[in-house]
């Protein structure tokens, strides 16, 4: 008991007795007792936090806090029943049992946990019971505790337990705190005989269904990078669900009973306790750190929790990433334990109940042989092993199990998965190099059915990481940023899933070009699937993961049976897997040099097709909301423009001819205009505009400009939603000015509009025609148009001087996150080789509200003209690219001026590190 004490209990009791025995008025006495209870609890929590830091025992910390609460409730009950509502000769109706239920009943509390209490009263009651309960509850509430409470007699408790599964689960974990022992024991006896007996399958089905609903709500994968420690898949609630099931079905009072019953081995029981201890430690630290019941392990908390738990950085991974990898490995262990206990329940022949498909056993199970030597059987549409020695007899059977599951479309029997997990030691070099095993594995990865599903099962059982050790290194690995929503292994499996969906045509509407191209790549299917499976396999290493990944691919592909040519292509795809996305999102796709440089990298049309599809799958698998139609449009534009170069369909020499043709087409299209109006308008347009902007947009712009001129408006805006691309275009017509883009970006920021691209054009009469693309906010076009028109009005007001942007920005922009959470080294690259006409400024740093406005302001102050801006955001990191010239229209060639540009931009990005940061220049 001493190990659970966080306070000097003898000293506390002495203080309590001294107060309780005094003859002071009840109100004064209540105040002083309440003060003592609050101070004692605070002292106990502070001591528990120190002890947690010293011994690291999460379970022990939870038990200590629970014990502290026990002591306080004992004292409170004694105070109420002896001083406030004393009964000298209590009758049977004037008894009570205070029972801890739920989490508190298990004897474990986090600092901010609810205190779940059942005030158990006899069938016949007097007002005394209600008075005592009310007084105790008000005291607990005045202590600022969250109390989950119920006041019932035994009959009501049994009836409600039969009706409500939540109440039944709560009462299942009961513990007498103080009061009438006989009353408590009667509840236990009747609960076991009237509620639990014979209802095991019903309870298990309900708990697993409840778990599935909870997973859907909190995220169906256990690999979300900001998990809810209590509710997410692989978290505390899953462990508790396992124990509830075991407690209910087997009648055990502790997890040790699972070992005695043979459900868990000693090693697996140690895993159970380690997982429980780790999750308790994390959760208690989170509550202590935030001083509230925080359950989501957010980015803001992760560095502090990692530090509290003693994690340090290693090459390729910082302390936070190492901590979170441990967390996700624990979550995976929880999944392993779930399968083991489910398998044991099946062996006990739990009867099938309606809707209970998680653990399914029929009275006469259907079985059929699946393979040679009858190593595997189909048992109720799930693959199982025919005997326990199947894997020991032939380790290739470990891979064959998953291959047959895919081939026959079978789920994996929990018994088979349990045996696989217990046979991982058989996966050694001989099996990894076995040609048959690798042939089967390649067929799994490239399956025309659902390869991601089988690979996930292989990963969950630990087979994938053992068979491919390089994959094992990235299992449960997270990247500490807001861009990646999943761990690296989960991302790879999701990218395989996206590719499979594209191949099956289920994503045709969202990815039309990829859907069209994949049909022409039937002979290259293996290349594409293997490249996706391996593209991030080298994450977490000191060197660039694309380069290291290509090297790993050159080692693994021959093992899988790929030819030398196929291996080269896979390695190339991995080395270049970020290239197309980067160019599409951060380069001017209307610049001939951009397309030519990319064509030089790709070289062949087949590589272009493969890289496009791989890029789509990669982005789509990053997480919800990362992919959008605008990124798809950029990738399609880059593909089509590069295809023209690769097939010889584009020539720089024809630029003048194409410009004249574009003028003629536009003139013909303005058929409703008077001839003199057409003749006056067409000469105003520069060739670059005519070759860059699609004809339908040119017509729309022409009508827009003509209407503005008719209305004698010097400043005007036009909104056009684009549903498929998930962006909205705002066209701005205004007198040309070096600070025009700065005003536009500031107005967009003030209106909460996120700019993704900007194209700046001018006319020969010194007006600017700027096209701004903002992220779409509403589903319906009419709603989105109204919103864009409000943004446009703010732009007009700002340009007219009606709205003072700094004031508007100060009122409307709120910080998204504390910048202290993430550290990004600011970087400015000035490059004169990426365009024949412009200097390209690439600015990388930590995103913040209004940053684009600030950047364009500094660029204008530096007397630079911006021709186009391309905005790319990766979570908290922003990479903004500007195509600029000096005021005379020339590139920035002067080293002195380049250095001045870097210095000013770096100062803006991060004053503290600007002087220390070395920007790179590619001239």
Automatic annotation (TrEMBL):
Coiled coil feature spans: none
Activity regulation field:
Uridylyltransferase (UTase) activity is inhibited by glutamine, while glutamine activates uridylyl-removing (UR) activity.
Q: Which cofactor does it need?
A: Mg(2+)
Q: Does the keyword Repeat apply?
A: yes
An example molecular function term from Gene Ontology annotations: [protein-PII] uridylyltransferase activity
Could you tell me which residues belong to the region Uridylyltransferase? 1-371
Q: What is its EC number?
A: 2.7.7.59, 3.1.4.-
- What CDD domains would the database entry show? ACT_ACR-UUR-like_2, ACT_UUR-like_1, HDc, NT_GlnE_GlnD_like
Q: Which UniProt keywords apply?
A: Hydrolase, Magnesium, Multifunctional enzyme, Nucleotidyltransferase, Repeat, Transferase
GO biological-process terms attached to the record: regulation of nitrogen utilization
- The portions of this protein that span the membrane are none
Catalytic reactions of this protein:
[protein-PII]-uridylyl-L-tyrosine + H2O = [protein-PII]-L-tyrosine + UMP + H(+); [protein-PII]-L-tyrosine + UTP = [protein-PII]-uridylyl-L-tyrosine + diphosphate
Domain HD: start-end pairs: 488-611
- Domain ACT, residue spans: 729-810, 840-923
Described function: Modifies, by uridylylation and deuridylylation, the PII regulatory proteins (GlnB and homologs), in response to the nitrogen status of the cell that GlnD senses through the glutamine level. Under low glutamine levels, catalyzes the conversion of the PII proteins and UTP to PII-UMP and PPi, while under higher glutamine levels, GlnD hydrolyzes PII-UMP to PII and UMP (deuridylylation). Thus, controls uridylylation state and activity of the PII proteins, and plays an important role in the regulation of nitrogen metabolism.
Q: Which NCBIfam families does the UniProt entry name for this protein?
A: PRK05092.1, UTase_glnD
Q: Which PANTHER family match?
A: BIFUNCTIONAL URIDYLYLTRANSFERASE/URIDYLYL-REMOVING ENZYME, BIFUNCTIONAL URIDYLYLTRANSFERASE_URIDYLYL-REMOVING ENZYME
Its domain comment says: Has four distinct domains: an N-terminal nucleotidyltransferase (NT) domain responsible for UTase activity, a central HD domain that encodes UR activity, and two C-terminal ACT domains that seem to have a role in glutamine sensing.
- Stated family: Belongs to the GlnD family.
What's the protein called, per UniProt?
A: Bifunctional uridylyltransferase/uridylyl-removing enzyme
Q: What species is this protein from? A: Paenochrobactrum gallinarii
The organism's lineage?
Answer: Bacteria, Pseudomonadati, Pseudomonadota, Alphaproteobacteria, Hyphomicrobiales
């Amino acid at each position: 008991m001493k190990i659970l004490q966080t306070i000097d209990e003898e000293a506390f009791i002495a203080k309590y007795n001294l107060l309780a025995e005094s003859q002071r008025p009840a109100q004064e006495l209540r105040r002083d007792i309440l003060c003592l209870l609050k101070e004692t609890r605070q002292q106990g929590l502070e001591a528990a936090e120190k002890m947690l830091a010293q011994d690291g025992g999460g379970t022990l910390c939870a038990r200590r806090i629970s014990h502290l609460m026990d002591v306080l409730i004992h004292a409170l009950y004694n105070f109420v029943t002896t001083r406030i509502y004393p009964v000298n000769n209590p009758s049977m109706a004037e008894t009570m049992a205070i029972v801890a239920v739920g989490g508190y009943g298990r004897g474990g509390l986090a600092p901010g946990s609810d205190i779940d209490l059942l005030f158990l009263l006899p069938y016949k009651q007097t007002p005394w019971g209600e008075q005592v309960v009310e007084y105790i509850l008000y005291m607990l509430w005045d202590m600022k505790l969250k109390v989950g409470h119920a006041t019932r007699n035994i009959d009501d408790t049994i009836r409600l337990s039969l009706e409500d599964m939540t109440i039944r689960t709560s009462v299942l974990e009961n513990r007498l705190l103080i009061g009438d022992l006989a009353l408590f024991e009667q509840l236990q006896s009747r609960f076991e005989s009237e509620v639990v007996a014979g209802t095991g399958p019903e309870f298990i089905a309900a708990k697993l269904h409840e778990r599935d609903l909870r997973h859907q709500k909190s995220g169906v994968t256990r690999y979300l990078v900001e998990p809810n420690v209590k509710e997410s898949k692989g978290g505390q609630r899953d462990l508790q669900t396992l124990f509830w099931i075991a407690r209910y079905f087997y009648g055990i009072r502790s997890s040790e009973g699972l070992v005695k019953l043979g459900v868990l081995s000693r090693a697996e029981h140690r895993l159970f306790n380690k997982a429980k201890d780790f999750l308790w430690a994390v959760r208690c630290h989170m509550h202590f750190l935030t001083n509230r019941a925080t359950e989501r392990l957010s980015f803001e908390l992760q560095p502090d929790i990692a530090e509290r738990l003693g994690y340090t950085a290693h090459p390729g991974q910082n302390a936070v990433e190492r901590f979170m990898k441990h967390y996700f490995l624990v979550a995976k262990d929880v999944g392993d334990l779930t399968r083991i206990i489910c398998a044991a329940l099946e062996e006990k022949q739990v009867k099938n109940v309606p809707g209970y498909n998680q653990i399914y056993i029929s009275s006469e199970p259907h079985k059929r042989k699946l393979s040679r030597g009858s190593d595997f059987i189909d048992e109720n549409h799930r693959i199982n092993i025919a005997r326990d020695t199947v894997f020991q007899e032939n380790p290739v059977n470990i891979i064959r199990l998953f291959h047959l599951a895919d081939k026959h479309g079978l789920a994996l029997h929990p018994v088979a998965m349990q045996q696989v997990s217990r046979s991982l030691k058989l996966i050694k070099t001989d099996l990894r190099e076995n040609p048959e095993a690798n042939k089967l594995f390649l067929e799994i990865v490239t399956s025309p059915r659902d390869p991601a599903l089988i690979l996930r099962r292989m990963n969950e059982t630990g087979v994938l990481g053992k068979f491919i050790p390089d994959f094992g290194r990235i299992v449960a690995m997270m990247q500490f940023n807001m861009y990646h929503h999943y761990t690296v292994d989960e991302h790879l499996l999701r990218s395989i899933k996206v590719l499979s969906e594209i191949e099956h045509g289920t994503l045709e509407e969202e990815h039309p070009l990829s859907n069209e191209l994949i049909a022409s790549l039937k002979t290259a299917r293996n290349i594409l699937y293997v490249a996706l499976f391996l593209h991030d396999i080298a994450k977490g290493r000191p060197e660039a993961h694309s380069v290291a990944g290509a090297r790993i691919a050159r080692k693994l592909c021959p093992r899988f049976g790929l030819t030398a040519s196929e291996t080269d292509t896979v390695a190339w795809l991995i080395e270049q897997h970020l290239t197309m996305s980067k160019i599409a999102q951060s380069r001017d796709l209307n610049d001939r040099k951009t397309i030519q440089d990319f064509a030089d990298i790709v070289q062949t049309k087949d590589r272009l097709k493969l890289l496009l599809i791989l890029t789509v799958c990669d982005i789509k698998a990053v997480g919800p909301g990362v992919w959008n139609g605008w990124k798809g449009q950029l990738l399609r534009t880059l593909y089509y423009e590069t295809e023209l170069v690769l097939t010889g369909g584009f020539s720089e020499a024809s630029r003048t001819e194409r410009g004249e043709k574009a003028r003629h087409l536009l003139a013909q299209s303005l058929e409703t205009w008077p001839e003199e109006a057409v003749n006056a308008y067409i000469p105003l347009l520069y060739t670059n505009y005519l070759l860059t902007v699609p004809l339908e947009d040119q017509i729309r712009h022409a009508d827009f400009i003509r209407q503005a001129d008719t209305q004698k408006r010097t400043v005007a805006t036009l909104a056009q939603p684009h549903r498929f691309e998930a962006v909205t275009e705002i066209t701005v017509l205004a007198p040309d000015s070096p600070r025009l883009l700065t005003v536009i970006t500031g107005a967009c920021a003030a209106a909460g509009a996120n700019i993704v691209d900007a194209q700046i054009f001018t006319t020969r009469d010194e007006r600017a025609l700027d096209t701004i693309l903002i992220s779409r906010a509403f589903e319906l076009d009419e709603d989105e148009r109204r919103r864009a028109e409000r943004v446009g009005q703010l732009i007009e007001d700002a340009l007219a001087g009606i709205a003072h942007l700094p004031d508007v920005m100060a009122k409307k922009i709120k910080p998204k996150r504390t910048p202290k959470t993430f550290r990004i080294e600011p970087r400015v690259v000035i490059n004169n080789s990426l365009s024949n006409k412009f200097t390209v400024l690439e600015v990388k740093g930590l995103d913040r509200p209004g940053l684009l406005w600030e950047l364009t302001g500094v660029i204008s102050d530096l007397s630079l003209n911006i021709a186009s801006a391309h905005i790319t955001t990766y979570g908290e990191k922003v990479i903004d690219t500007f195509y600029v010239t000096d005021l005379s229209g020339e590139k920035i060639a002067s080293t002195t001026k380049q250095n001045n540009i870097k210095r000013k931009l770096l100062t803006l990005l991060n004053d503290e590190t600007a002087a220390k940061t070395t920007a790179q220049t590619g001239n």
